[in-house]
Amino acid sequence: MIKPVFLITVALLVMTASCSAFAYRLPACGVSDEERVKPAEDVLLAYRAEMDALSKSVNIARIDEHRRNPKIRLDAKERKASKIYDTLIVKTRFWEEVVRLKDSLIALHGTNPPAEAVTEADAIAKNVIETLYALSQRWKVGSALFTNFLINLGLKEKGFCYHYVTRLRQSLLNRAWNRFDIRWGTAWKFSFRESNALVITAKGRSFDEGLVIDPWRTAGRPFWTPVKGDRFPWVEEVGVEEKYEVN
Question: In the chain, how many domains are there?
Answer without folding.
Answer: 1
